[in-house]
Specification:
This protein is an alpha+beta fold. It has helices spanning 18-24, 49-55, 64-80; strands at 31-37, 40-46.
Length: 82
Amino acid sequence: MEKLRVRVGKRRTLVIPKLVAERLGIDEGSVIELEVYGDYLVLRPLPTAIDVALRGKKYVKVSLEDIERVSVEEQGRLATGC
């Protein structure tokens, strides 16, 4: 991607160009981490829990049947007080 220039607005706001926002998955309400390295400012969008669940690395495969079985067992345990 080529370099882009943006102007700092009122109250020091930055507007992220649409092309950049779409490429990085930034939308209204996104959380962005800011880091300063010398005279450089690095902005990094932080993934939401939904992003991680849908696109994150998978460590374990769990079926819906497994989830239902554990849920029923837990509900039974809680209902009997054991």
